[in-house]
From TrEMBL:
PANTHER family: COMD (PTHR23501:SF197), MAJOR FACILITATOR SUPERFAMILY (PTHR23501). It comes from Streptomyces tricolor. It is a multi-pass membrane protein. This is MFS transporter. InterPro entries: EmrB-like (IPR004638), MFS (IPR011701), MFS_dom (IPR020846), MFS_trans_sf (IPR036259). Pfam families: MFS_1.
Amino acid sequence: MTFSGTQHQDASGDASARLGHRQITTVMSGLVLGMFLGALDQTVVSSALRTIADDLHGLTAQAWVTTAYLVTATLATPLYGKLSDIHGRRPVYLAAIALFTAGSLLCASATSIYTLAAFRAVQGLGGGGLMSLAMTIVADITTPRERGRYQGWFMAVFGGASIVGPLVGGAFADRAGLLGIDGWRWIFLINVPLAAAATVAVLRVLRLPQRRVHHRLDHPGALALAVGLVPLLVVAEQGRSWGWASPGVLALYAVGAAGLGVFVVVERRTGDAALLPPRLFRIRSFRLGVALHFVVGIGMFGAMTTLPLYLQLVRGMSPIAAGAATLPTVLANLAVTLVVGRLIARTGRFKVHLVAGCGSLAAAMLVFATLGVDSPLWQAALGMALMGAGLGAAMQTLTTLAQCEVPREDMGAATASVNFFRSNGGTVGTAAFLSVLFSTAAGRIADRLAEARQDAAYRRLLAEPGNAHALTGVLRPGGGVRLQDSAFLQTLDRGAALPFLQGYVASMRVVFLAGAAVSLVAFLIAAWRVPNLTLGDD
């Protein structure tokens, strides 16, 4: 196979034509280390964020630690795709690892919640390239038919990180200090040896032909995208606390919409050198792939945010125990990912797996919607297994769909676009699901408290000194509740806590039903709009 257009081809030819399974596996070992670095960091930090915020006296500002990383990682993702098309994959991938490592060291030295947020932004600049570049490199060195077989490894990496992360984060957060350093700071310091191992692996195994596209970087497009996305991402993360219709939020809506409008105009004028080339959206499979990534991302991230809250708030599990309880998701994900990857490599057909995966995600949401305060754990485990199987079948096939008809010279930009839209879908899903949850929970809890207080035995239970002390500042004089902090549930008697738990479950049920509806939309698009293509071997 030859390459045409503006790209440059090494004399050794197309990588995908000359690399066998053992060689591809060797390259994958380096990519997996880089991806594990980014995936582990996200789950480790989220499980220890409350402890970090307490130590830095910034409990009310802790959301900025997540927002800062999200904004820069999302913005950097399409930039990495275009930079790797221009300068080659390996140097840009190494630069992403270096930026991520520098941000990790800065985070470990943070002295306030705001400096930590700023340093997390630096981390995000590197983290934005760790996943998209790895997926791009796999697309470079494999044929469309065998691509899913290897991309499935990445889903296994994220599944493993979702288990290991809370365990490591909880272990460090629970320690006051280690070797004279605050325990939580090791959450960031452990990235350094992992990054060193990833760098060595990439330097040793990632030796591929240089296939560069001779374009300049689309600076105007990058600036317009930043102006459009930053306000909207900030609103998505902070809108619930600021008020979705407050004057400041409305102003951010306007700035974001204007920025995105300018971005579309700039990209059309820039043509082939555009950050997100408009011509890609004329390819049906790519257009459907990124659209489905956005829709599935809403449901996936929304569920993955809400489910731990059920395990921790309602079932009273610690972050470590809640992470371990999600093992059915990981096992189902890994098993289905490997099976589907091999089936696609054998038959070249992927639509059936995509449709089944979206259907499994919808079924998982419906199972989660049936969970109650005292539901058996096997019921939650069933939903987790369905979710893991759905993600294992859908995510790799969505990426395959988006990439299958894209010219190789645009593979970096196309793969970055896939991750870009999934990340934005995840942001929308997380913000929307949590907004629905916490905006409805207070009213539902108040209703159940009012019903419970009609029982004299429950009133006596609330009057007990331990329960009365735990509820100080929680119960409003008019019968309402304040839910800024859930720590009171840890000391409240189980019987006294029952109305609170029932209220949370009722709100979570609404959230999961919304997730089922979103997943059903993805199922319908996959079933009726995605063409039944057969992947080739070139």
